[in-house]
């Protein structure tokens, strides 16, 4: 069942919306589902130009369609760094090795496992030099948008951490991605559904995928061209950076599957009583939430204020805006006792809630709590996005070094200590001592966090 587990646990999508597989996060390995799955076919992007009259790009300024502050804006950008010849990839292939379209894949059950069948291999995306602007629904437009913002985030991160070695990635645009399952309620008949309306990072082949719109969302007039939202491209690339940094602590790129030896489930005895430590599932959930928050912060600090806006984007608006203290339904972005309890309690339902309702069981929700809280902590000392970006990277590096030493923590302690590490990292990096005022602010974001911050004790 490894293949399905791999897909369920490790793909890090931008939102939980429309992603039926995510429901099975706490029950990996299941390929028989109780409910018939709803699915709408994808609205695939078109390759607009085939065969070019001119073979050489002379002018790199092109127009990108950007979904900024709820509006589609045309913006001219210098795209020099994202072309190699006519192909959309880094000039020196150091950031993006290739951008592909036309991929047609299907996950099918084979015995107890899920197997990937490739119906059609993707082709590399190229553009025509004579064509300056492409239609919104074209492969070329989506590829240029995604590559431009991934490249921008890469450069911002490398400027703060020149020694960090980030492997190049592959970008996949608008694939047809079908999953076929055996459905118990239909007498074990097979049923297929498409993955749509989302974007995700896959660490197993270091790729960022922008899924197509579903026909249903398209017909309902829902704007979710995620390749047009700069924050989404940067966020997915943020997962790649997190994976790069945490690789050692997690025991290898191939996933947290190999995390067990260095991060095992040990019972701990304190005062004659067995204290349960975080289980493997708890650790995966907690690290996944921090992975989401980290990626939101990377996007927030590496893009311009205008580019990082998610206003008007379904499932992201307000909720995934790091600066906003509330979710879209008004719940506070605080590690409240209720939020922590809900997050750390195993799922009681497999029903996915609409993304407009805050669900603290979700890793994206707790990630948003972390991102906002972390930003609030650093904002008391600095407004500099560069410094905040640097702190965020430093925190992940420290976490990687400390992770194996955190094996004996309970799940609550683990959640708390990882956030406390951000606060102490910020204080050290900015050379701002933790005083009564800053410790009080920390407590407001996470009650009892000061138990994990030695500098706050006795204040
Ligand atoms: Zn994500």
Which terms would index this structure?
single chain, alpha+beta, 6-stranded mixed beta sheet, 10 helices, 33% helix, 18% strand, binds zinc ion
Structure characterization notes:
This protein is α+β, with helices and mostly antiparallel strands and 459 residues long. It contains ten helices and 19 strands. It has helices spanning 2-10, 139-160, 215-219, 230-250, 280-302, 337-344, 363-379, 385-402, 411-430, 436-445; strands spanning 12-13, 32-33, 42-43, 61-68, 71-78, 83-84, 87-88, 96-101, 104-110, 113-120, 123-124, 169-173, 176-183, 189-194, 199-202, 207-210, 213-214, 268-270, 273-275. It has a six-stranded mixed β-sheet, sandwiched between helices. Helix 2 packs across helix 5, helix 4 packs parallel to helix 8 and helix 8 crosses helix 9 (411-430). Zinc ion binds next to strand 1, helix 4 and helix 5. Residues 12-14, 235, 239, 292, 295 line the site of zinc ion (ZN).
Estimate percent helicity.
25-40%
Distance between the termini: 51 Å
Counting H and I runs of at least 4 residues, what is the number of helices? 10
Question: What is bound: which ligands?
Answer: zinc ion
Which sheet architecture does the biggest sheet show?
6 strands, mixed
Share of β-strand residues: 15-25%
The strand order across the widest sheet is: 1-15-16-12-8-11
Oligomer category: single chain
Low-confidence stretches: 1-10, 17-37, 251-268
Mean pLDDT: 83
Radius of gyration: 22 Å
Morphology: globular
